[in-house]
Amino acid sequence: MFAARGTDWGFEGDDRRSDGEGGGRVMIRARIAEDRGGPERRRSERLPVDIEAKLRELGTAGSEARVVNISETGFMAEVDEDFEVGARVWLMLPGRERANAVVRWTAAGKLGAEFTDPLPADSLPPSAD
Q1: What is the CATH T-level fold of the domain 47-123, as seen in this structure?
Q2: Closest CA to 93 of 59, 38, 55
Q3: Which of 7, 21, 32, 67 is most buried as measured by Cβ atoms within 10 A of its Cβ?
Q4: DSSP-assigned letter for residue 114
């Protein structure tokens, strides 16, 4: 049995037959941290939007993006370019100052990023609803 200190997961060895023919048994236990923030973990409400923008990783030319939701603390955008989790990016919305953010997740042509400095609520674009 292997277990890491401070976790509730482990690995129990397999019971291999002496002739090397598999038949083994492996048990893995895992525990995922309980979400204590309720049904919505975000710090601020996301507003659905549909905004053509530019997203530029620091040190690059940038690419087109379509922002699909935004809040004081972050945004989600559809992108054609690949971005790495942890990348620092500039989000440039039409008629607004650029905003610095850190990519927190990517999946299937989308990314989520957290603003380095939260945006004032009155500077957010109107909701698409």
Answers
A1: Thrombin, subunit H (2.40.10)
A2: 55
A3: 67
A4: E
Predicted confidence (pLDDT) at residue 31 exceeds the cutoff of 50: no
Q: What is the pLDDT of residue 45?
A: 85
Task: Kindly state the tokens that stand for 20.
Answer: 């090397």
Q: What is the pLDDT of residues 4-15, one digit of tens each?
A: 444 444 444 444
SS3 121: helix
Task: Quote the mean pLDDT of the chain.
Answer: 77
Yes or no: say if 89 and 56 are a contact pair by the CB < 8 Å rule: yes
Alpha-carbon gap, residue 114 to 12, rounded angstroms: 39
The residue whose two tokens read 């659905």 is 48
List, edge to edge, every strand of the sheet that includes 27-29.
Answer: 2-3, 10-12, 27-29
Looking at residues 68-88, what average pLDDT do you find? 95
